[in-house]
Specification:
By secondary structure, the protein is mainly β. It folds into 2 domains: about 110 residues, Methylamine Dehydrogenase, Chain H; about 150 residues, Methylamine Dehydrogenase, Chain H. It is built from 3 helices and 28 strands. The strands form 7 sheets. A 4-stranded antiparallel beta sheet has the order 1-28-27-26. The protein is globular. It starts with a strand and ends with a helix. Belongs to the WD repeat WDR55 family. Keywords: Repeat, WD repeat. InterPro entries: WD40/YVTN_repeat-like_dom_sf, WD40_repeat_CS, WD40_repeat_dom_sf, WD40_rpt, WDR55/POC1.
Length: about 325
C-alpha cells in the first residue's frame, strides 16, 4: 500500500500503540491524520512522544514543535532550540528526547518541563542518526564528519569518539545483544564496532557498495534491514556478514527512512519519489527463509570475527523483490 505525500519526505515514525504514522516534509509540513503547517522551513525529523499523545518535529528553522495527535493543535514550540538546523530526534525516556543539529550539537530535553537538561558538542558536522541504550544510559550518535560518538547521559559528557572514517556515517544500530554497533555510510560500507572499543571498527562489510546506506533498521539480533540510495531495501545478516536478499524496491530514488509499525506487521519506507509505502513484513520476509537456511549451511564454519573486505560476495542479480503489499495494508490507511 502506498500514499502520495505531494512533497519530498525527510522523517518517518509510527505511533507506539495505534495504527498511525507521521511523516515530515521538506516544505515544513507534518502529515498525520491532519496536515499540520508545523515549520517555516523543511521539517527534517519526526517522533511520537509522551506515549504517543504528541508528535515532535525538528526543522531547518532551528525550532522543535510538539503537536497534539488528536487535535493537531500546538502543545509547545521551542524557537531557536538549536543555533543550527535540527536534523535528528530520538525518544529517550517517557519524558525526555534528544535532538541533533547540523553542526554536531546534541541537546536533551525534558518534555514536561519544556527545558534543556544538557548538551553535547559531539561532532563537527551534522548529526545523522542516534540510538539510545537505556541500560547504560548511553546515546550513540553518527555524523557527517565520519565519526561515531558515545554520549553519557548521566554525566552529560562525550565518553568516547571514534577515529574519522573515510566517508560520512549515516545511521547506527546495536546488535548481537549489545556486543556490536553497526554504522551505515555514504559509500555503502557497513562499519562494525565492538562494544567498548569504539576508536576503530573491528569489521567492514562492503557488499552494499557503492550505493549509500541511507537508513538501518534492526530486525533482530542477527539481521537488519538496509535502505539504499538506489531505492533497494535489503535484508542483511551480521556475523556472518552477508546480504540475505533484497526484499523490496521502493523506487529508483534514495530511500530516506524506514520504520516498523507498533505491532511490527508493517515496514514503512519513504523516498524522494514523494511516496510513503507500507510493506507487509511477513510477506516480504517470506522469501528470505529459504535463503537464510541455504546460507546458514554454507557458513557453519565461519567465525564471528570474519572480515569480508577481501573478495566480497555479490548479491544475486535478478532476485525478485516485492511491490508494496495491498490488502491488510490498505486498512492501515483507511482513516487517512
Amino acid at each position: 500500500m502506498e500514499a502520495s505525500l505531494g512533497e519530498i519526505p525527510f522523517g518517518l515514525d509510527f505511533h507506539p500503540s495505534k495504527e498511525l504514522v507521521a511523516v515530515s516534509l521538506i516544505t515544513g509540513d507534518l502529515h498525520l491524520l491532519l496536515d499540520v503547517r508545523a515549520h517555516s522551513e523543511s521539517c527534517r525529523t519526526v517522533r511520537f512522544i509522551n506515549g504517543g499523545q504528541a508528535v515532535a518535529t525538528g526543522s531547518k528553522d532551528c525550532s522543535i514543535l510538539a503537536t497534539d495527535v488528536e487535535t493537531g493543535s500546538v502543545i509547545a514550540r521551542l524557537e531557536n532550540a538549536h543555533e543550527n538546523a535540527i536534523n535528528s530526534l530520538i525518544n529517550l525516556t517517557d519524558s525526555t528526547v534528544a535532538s541533533g543539529d547540523d553542526e554536531g550539537c546534541i541537546k536533551v530535553w525534558d518534555t514536561r518541563q519544556r527545558s534543556c537538561c544538557g548538551s553535547f558538542n559531539a561532532h563537527e558536522d551534522y548529526v545523522s542518526d542516534m540510538n539510545f541504550i537505556p541500560d547504560s544510559m548511553k546515546l550513540l550518535t553518527t555524523s557527517g564528519d565520519g565519526t561515531l560518538s558515545v554520549c553519557n547521559l548521566r554525566t552529560y559528557k562525550v565518553q568516547t569518539r571514534s577515529e574519522f572514517s573515510e566517508d560520512e556515517l549515516t545511521s547506527v544500530v546495536v546488535m548481537k545483544n549489545g556486543r556490536k554497533v553497526i554504522c551505515g555510510s555514504q559509500s555503502g560500507t557497513l562499519l562494525l564496532y565492538s562494544w567498548g572499543f569504539f576508536k576503530d571498527c573491528s569489521d567492514r562489510f562492503v557488499d552494499l557498495s557503492p550505493n549509500s546506506v541511507e537508513a538501518l533498521l534492526k530486525l533482530d539480533e542477527d539481521r537488519l534491514i538496509t535502505a539504499s540510495e538506489n531505492g533497494l531495501i535489503s535484508l542483511v545478516g551480521i556475523l556472518p556478514n552477508r546480504i540475505i536478499q533484497p526484499i523490496a524496491e521502493h523506487s529508483d530514488y534514495p530511500v530516506e527512512g524506514l520504520a516498523f509499525s507498533h505491532d511490527r506487521r508493517f515496514l514503512g519506507s519513504i523516498s524522494h519519489d514523494q511516496m510513503l509505502k507500507l510493506w507487509d513484513l511477513d510477506d516480504i520476509l517470506q522469501g528470505s527463509a529459504n535463503a537464510t537456511k541455504d546460507q546458514a549451511a554454507m557458513s557453519d564454519s565461519d567465525s564471528d570475527e570474519m572480515d569480508v573486505d577481501d573478495n566480497p560476495s555479490q548479491s544475486k542479480k535478478g532476485t525478485k523483490v516485492k511491490n508494496a503489499s495491498k490488502g491488510a495494508a490498505s486498512n492501515f490507511f483507511a482513516d487517512l
